[in-house]
Amino acid sequence: MTHALVTGSAGFIGSTLTDRLLADGVRVTGVDLFTDYYDQALKRRNLEGAAKHANFSLLELDLGEADLSRLPDVDVVFHQAAQPGVRASWGREFAAYTHHNVLATQRLLERYKQTKLERFVYASSSSVYGDAESYPTSETVLPRPFSPYGVTKLAGEHLTLLYGRNFGLPVAALRYFTVYGPRQRPDMAFHRFCRAMLAGEPITVYGDGRQSRDFTFVADAIEANVRAWKGAKPQGVYNIGGGSQVEVMEAIALLEKSLEVKARVNFEPRPAGDPLRTRADASRLAQDLGYRTTVGIADGLAAEAEWARSLYGRVR
Ligand code: UGA
Questions:
Q1: What is the pLDDT of residue 314?
Q2: Residue 316: is its pLDDT beyond 50?
Q3: Which of 122, 239, 258, 307 is the most exposed place for a label (fewest CB within 10 A)?
Q4: Whose CA is nearest to atom 30 of ligand 1?
Q5: Is there a catalytic annotation at residue 149?
Q6: Mind listing the pLDDT tens digit for each residue in 66-121?
Q7: Pick from 244, 234, 28, 198: which is nearest to 120 by CA?
Q8: Distance 208 CA to ligand 1 centre (A)
């Protein structure tokens, strides 16, 4: 039976990927530290299904510190664990970003560099581009992060690629463009909006709300992981996006429809580190991995709204 290691397996994308792999008949060892960056109960909840599965086991450890010879030899590694959050990576917090995003990645690569892997898939980020030089942004554009977080994700990506080149490790990096959908992290925009709107509280919009993102539905990000495992080109770097470019205020209008709640909006200044725009050139994803994202923003937001209702109840 194929055996996968999923780091960050209790998180938003890691847990969704874990469920998909288990459903596909893959044995999964999950790794998670359950940091307190957000409510740990949400992470436990993400793993409820997997925890009941005979082919799932969980290791709670810090990849930046633990003895990684404890990790099993596996066929494929999906390295999803990270200290996330674009706007929170300033000041003293930066130490957590270098620890979890750079050191942890280097230690994981050391652990697996001499093993026979089908693939080491690194979860990178559109944050490596910052305010990009051109749109839609292709993988060949010079990365120029705009946040300290983006710098650490880019460092992790470079480490992954250089271990690939030095040791013949079959690696791939997936640059996710603002992934959303059920289980989205509670610090991310749509989750915050849903929670506040369902509680009848005001939401906060940064800047004038006309900043845009290439929002990517979680199922599309998961499919890209599976395809990268099976078919990435050597040292392949892929934008995972291309679904829909939407301004924040447009997304709020869609959420109002799905939740049947009118949003009360407080505007706050645009925070440091927050790019005005992201947009993926997804042609490499199509060419190499034969995939185009399939879920549009209206359907994707409806699914996230439905999930948020199940979490927070409904106002009506
Ligand atoms: C997201 C993830 O949080 C990062 O981990 C990931 O690396 C990144 O996507 C990426 O694509 O690389 P972000 O785009 O900031 O980062 O995602 P959201 O938190 O969903 O924010 C989307 C937009 O909504 C931003 O422009 C932000 O300014 C805005 N926003 C966010 C608000 O107006 N109000 C809020 O309360 C939160």
A1: 64
A2: no
A3: 307
A4: 189
A5: yes
A6: 999 999 999 999 999 999 999 999 999 999 999 999 999 999 999 999 999 999 99
A7: 234
A8: 14
- How far apart (Å, rounded) are the C-alpha atoms in residues 193 and 264? 10
Q: Residue 248 CA: which ligand 1 atom is closest?
A: 24
- Tokens at 140, concatenated: 């060949």
How far, in Å, from the CA of 189 to the mean position of ligand 1?
Answer: 6
Per the CB < 8 A criterion, the answer to whether 121 and 75 are in contact is: no
How many CB atoms are located within 10 Å of the residue 49 CB? 14
> What DSSP string describes 72-84?
PP-SEEEE-----
State in Å: Cα 180 to ligand 1 middle: 10
CA distance 76 to 120: 6
Q: Which one-letter amino acid corresponds to residue 237?
A: V
pLDDT at 23 over 80: yes
